[in-house]
UniProtKB/TrEMBL annotation, chains A, B, C, D:
One Pfam family cited in the UniProt record for this chain: HbpS-like
Originating organism: Hoeflea ulvae
SUPFAM superfamilies: GlcG-like
Annotated PANTHER family: SLR1406 PROTEIN
Domain of life: Bacteria
Name of this chain's protein: Heme-binding protein
């Protein structure tokens, strides 16, 4: 498995924020977790509200939990809400099941981490996340 | 009550994984809990995502909680969501109410443990769980 | 980083249990966590008491938390008890700071997981853990 | 009150990491919290162990909790352990009471955030934290 280095994590963040600027998005928080769900790097832009770190982290953590981008969790929450409730419970309340949590995969398809973004609409958050992962040379899985 | 030995628990796991391989399922996590809901044995296959132990455990724990396989909980969640919410709350957030949590019963019908599986669709997870319990000479109750 | 496969995790467990048998130890629980602290494989021997999974897991998790075997945490708990209390708190109560949590390192020294054992004295638990890691071809770090 | 901008937070982090490199310290995690105790920016260096974000965050949070650097909490923990236990409890378990959590003060002495560092000895962690705060043009309070 490829290691997700700090340099790569910072490249993902700065590229995602550049995409946010290009699209005219509101202030964002970007969180990069390693494959085990532990924080590697975070940047919360000026003006992004108080709990944006926790929300962004919850999207990324949810994606890692089930091995698919958080958009899939969003769909599950609508069709099988009790599954999401159970998943959230056994995670210790660490999951936010909306788009914007995107898996980071290496060339062999192994999950090496996840990026979570929040601040604008979930769809726009996800667009920035995908752009960040691609700019770092990895493959995004948005769900 | 028949004891659920470690040897029997391992037989359940390896048989369930063999069934998964036969059916071409995705990587699985298999958890065997004893009659008190405590972990007896676990195996998480390579490629199974991060929180699969917690999800599988939550299915098995839910089955033991009410004395019926977790498929029953899945139905309850649809018809009486407030019951599942209450059950989850009083369990301390330990329950995942979807199929794949199967009770292990001895010849006299006593509950001696439960197996929980996750990784593929809930229906397929349950098939592997049933196969595992039967291979060990016990009676499965899927709910 | 080398992946900690399920086969290797099982090799660690069976070798640790063989060592326990050789030394005449009480029934053990053996937990193998991956590098992110997530359960890879568990076996709790017949006669090992109710919460042995949680204790073994807490030793392994503590070792991963700080990147050194749990014997080091044991010393810290005596010399700087408030550090251990803080560490335990921010971990969400997941750490048991006594010997028996041993890091699993690959040939390059990278931490690829941890094994935790409980059931006999902490010193004996640790001996079994070290034996398990070595038998799988990895380098143990007991702290 | 001066705002702690993301640019300034990043300046603190990169300067602290530069100090760590200069001193030959082990891999570090650096967390910058705003005046409300919410994450502004984080970088965890390659090789820094699993729970380093939580530990660094706990030092910074503790400093903000009482308005003095976490070295003061370390002393309190030795002379009045029950105070630290109470403080940890009412914080929801968010505090690590050892040196390395340093307040960030503006020219008028107002607290605008805190930086927490972990990875090497607590004394060395604190040195890197102080260097980071000063490099960003602010006044450190280590306690």
């Amino acid at each position: 498995m490829t290691d997700l280095t700090l340099n790569k994590a910072l490249k993902i963040i700065t590229s995602a924020l550049a995409k946010g600027k290009e699209l005219g998005l509101k202030p964002l928080a970007v969180v990069v977790l390693d494959a085990g769900g532990h924080v590697k790097a975070v940047q919360r832009q000026d003006g992004a509200s108080m709990l944006r770190f926790e929300i962004a982290s919850g999207k990324a953590y949810g994606a890692l939990a089930v091995g698919v981008g958080s958009r899939w969790l969003d769909t599950q929450a609508e069709t099988r809400p009790h599954f999401l409730e159970g998943l959230s419970a056994v995670s210790g309340g660490k999951i936010v099941a909306v788009p914007g949590g995107v898996l980071i995969k290496d060339r062999k398809g192994a999950i090496i981490g996840a990026v979570g973004i929040t601040g604008d609409s979930s769809d726009n958050d996800e667009r920035a996340a995908i752009a960040g992962v691609e700019a770092a040379g990895f493959t995004p899985d948005a769900g």
